[in-house]
Specification:
mainly beta; 5-stranded antiparallel beta sheet; 2 helices; globular; PQQ-dependent sugar dehydrogenase
């Protein structure tokens, strides 16, 4: 069923500032980039149109919402089959969308390649169009494996190639894809286990691939220099160690990964982030080549299941993080030099916003442009799916929710 999408996304979008729910968690701050001690601040926010809210929904003065700023907006009707009435939804009735690679654009008609973890199907999801098949990758979707990440080629505009992190019956690997064609191996032999098979791929500002690998259920492999498991690898598009790595001839960029959720960066590549899940907490790391992942920029002791991330810091002062267990969006205040300045504000949890909104369990997130991202849902993977799940949804940052609380 076609999902209608009428609102244009050309202006900076932001989520509402009302009643942000503070998440209780413990922070271990790494402010070496900032050269300063932790001080809670409220970063300046651009002027926010009063009718724009979390996820792009109309607020209390938007069209069809009562016309008055103090009136209660009309809730979005529930889905009917595959038809979803929420304007932030651009694709419906998919299965466990664990991988999303947004196609850059001006935001007027957001689109992305969406990967289903269990089936290995990759579909083109675009506003006002039905999802269209793009390619299928044979995967082993048992446990936490399968198709867990997608990244556009650094030269996607010319070569139309895509990289995927997948689980096979024998290993985890990176493959290269063209539309409608069989995958070609790029990096193979990444250890596979009963758990710890999730991976994340992104590109850096120099055209290399950053690949975060799980520890295959063996935490000791994350520190083993001889293993590809539990690492951030930096490779070129042919799978070889990229030029400029910390150790020449080695693909290892950083060690200490366990169950990665997502890698994201700002446009210049000055800030690169990794979300990860440890046995006792979820964490966010600032990636720096050659440095092991030991001190998180932020940690969550309640383990919400950190997944994708999007660096909106340049536009709003926030790093946005999706969660696949708590099922919400967490906006972490961050300075331009990469220092976390307060607790995350929580949105899209069904409690905050006008009207309150939730899409359930959120997974991978990928930026369309510096002010808009797309994310997938994984409600068919242990959640409570609605008739239109799983979906690809528009995510907009919070520009006016404040800087969080003091730790």
């Amino acid at each position: 069923m076609r999902t209608r999408y009428r609102r244009k996304w050309t202006a900076p979008l932001a989520m509402l500032a009302c009643g942000a729910l503070m998440l209780s968690g413990c922070a271990e701050f790494d402010n070496t980039a900032a050269g300063q001690k932790f001080t809670p601040v409220n970063p300046p926010s651009p002027e926010v149109p009063p009718h724009v809210g979390p996820g792009g929904e109309a607020g209390d003065s938007g069209p069809g919402r009562g016309g008055g700023r103090n009136q209660t907006p009309t809730p979005v009707p529930p889905p009917q089959g595959c038809k979803d009435f929420d304007k932030a939804v651009i694709a419906t009735c998919l299965d466990t969308v664990a991988a999303v690679a947004a196609i850059p654009g001006d935001g007027t008609a957001p689109s992305a390649l969406a990967g289903e973890r269990k089936s290995g199907r990759i579909l083109l999801a675009a506003a006002e169009k039905d999802p269209a098949g793009w390619a299928t990758v044979p995967v082993d979707g048992s446990g936490d494996g399968g198709l867990t990440s997608l990244a556009l080629s650094p030269g996607f505009a010319e070569d139309q190639l895509v990289f995927a992190y997948i689980t096979t019956p024998n290993d985890n690997r990176v493959v290269r894809l063209a539309k409608g064609q069989a995958p070609k191996p790029v990096l193979t032999g990444i250890p596979k286990g009963a758990t710890g098979n999730r991976g994340a791929i992104s590109t850096d500002a120099k055209g290399a691939l950053l690949v975060a690998t799980g520890d295959a259920g063996n935490p000791g492999l994350a520190a083993d220099p001889a293993s590809l498991a539990g690492k951030v690898l930096r490779i070129d598009t042919s799978g070889k160690p990229a030029a400029g790595n910390p150790t020449p001839g080695s693909a290892v960029f950083s060690t200490g990964v366990h169950s990665p959720g997502g890698i994201c960066r700002d446009q210049t590549g000055s800030r690169v982030w990794l979300t990860d899940r440890l046995a006792d907490k979820d964490v966010l790391y600032r990636l720096r080549g050659g440095q092991p992942l030991t001190t998180p920029a932020w940690s969550w002791t309640d383990k919400p299941g950190v997944a994708g991330c999007a660096d909106f810091v340049g536009a709003t002062g926030y790093l946005s993080i999706t969660t696949s267990i708590a099922g919400n969006l967490q906006n972490l205040p961050v300075t331009p030099d990469g220092a976390v300045t307060g607790k995350p504000n929580v949105f899209m949890d069904g409690k905050v916003g006008k009207p309150p909104k939730t899409f359930g369990k959120l997974s991978a997130m990928s930026m369309v442009n510096p002010q808009i991202a797309l994310a997938g849902t994984v409600n068919k993977d242990g959640g409570t799916p609605v008739s239109s799940d799983d979906r690809v949804v528009i995510i907009t940052p919070s520009a006016s929710s404040g800087g969080g609380g003091k730790d």
